[in-house]
Amino acid sequence: MKCPFCGHPETQVVETRVSEDGDFVRRRRQCSACDKRFTTYERPDVNYPVVVKKDGSRADFDAGKVRASMMLALRKRPVSIEQIDDALLRIEQKLLASAQREIPSHKLGELVMRELKKLDKVAYVRFASVYRSFEDVEEFRQLLRDI
Questions:
Q1: Counting CB atoms within 10 angstroms of each CB, which of 9, 20, 53, 101 has the fewest?
Q2: Where does the ATP-cone domain start and stop, copy by copy (predicted)?
């Protein structure tokens, strides 16, 4: 690895540590030319599928947007942040396990609804009512019957 101070191409790893949650590796390095030390972090580079929206446009998967929509549906509901994080992690794992390059937005919405249904029925109904854009009351009643 190139030294950020002098640009010398050779550095030595002095110390390696794995983070507590195992998400990244921290390495202390020392330049063999100027002897300065610096830290690098290694994280896995995962490729989530691109989300294909209803209008055909494409956007990178954004876990922050999914989290925000879940938080909105779960507003003032008795669900912990840890439960939300776990649900989001399951969604991300399903996306990675699918090994698809693209996913239609409606399939992503279905994954979110499935997780919300497990967490809280009221949040599920809130999300589904906006996500599915019900045309009439009967469609909404059918959703409630399905629960």
A1: 20
A2: 49-139
